[in-house]
Amino acid sequence: MLACLQPGEIFGEMSILSGEVRNANAIANDNVTLVVIEKDILTSTMNETLPMVQSLAISLIKRLNNSNQKINEKPSNNTLLTVCTILHLMVENLVAKQGAAIGNLPQKRLRYYDLCSTIKDIVPLSEVDIDHVLDHLVRHGYIKVFSVKN
């Protein structure tokens, strides 16, 4: 999981604005009410905004697309850094979902299986590679594994 959205937040807008293929999924943890924004409605609304706002939106979309392309073209060869970055984002997300203060441990822990699945969904690493990195982090005291993986 890369993000936990709050009420009123929008997702999926980039594929409409940029014309790119959608590259993420959304899963609701509770009952939700969704408002679908059709492409033609969004386009007509954007066309009615000030030219400066249109230019700003186009500029931001181009920058984000360029950044995403660079990330995809040059994936990190540093497996340790990659796994640590994903682990950090998942813990931040868990803290945000639980409303804990930054720096405090979340009450609910990450499941080993979920962590490995998420990492494999994001980067092309084998479970052996992921296990190796996590074992390294445990040996050096950076993380603790509280139960046996499934």
Q: Can I get a quick summary?
A:
This protein is mainly α. It has six helices and no strands.
Helix residue percentage: 40-55%
Helix and strand content put the structural class at mainly alpha
Q: How many helical stretches?
A: 6
> What is Rg?
19 Å
Q: pLDDT average, as an integer?
A: 80
Strand content: under 5%
Measured distance between first and last alpha carbons:
19 Å
Question: In total, how many beta strands?
Answer: 0
Low-confidence stretches: none
Inertia-based shape:
elongated
Q: What is the number of domains?
A: 2
Q: Tell me about the largest β-sheet.
A: none
SSE series = HHHHHH
Write a structural description.
With 150 residues, the chain is mostly helical. The protein contains 6 helices and no strands. It has 2 domains: 13-73, no CATH class; 79-139, no CATH class. The protein is 55% helix and 0% strand.
What labels would you give this structure?
RmlC-like_jellyroll; cNMP-bd_dom; 150 residues; cNMP-bd_dom_sf; single chain; 6 helices; cAMP-binding protein regulatory protein; mainly alpha
Summarize the helices and strands and which ones pair or pack.
Blueprint: H1 13-18, H2 39-47, H3 51-73, H4 79-98, H5 112-122, H6 127-139
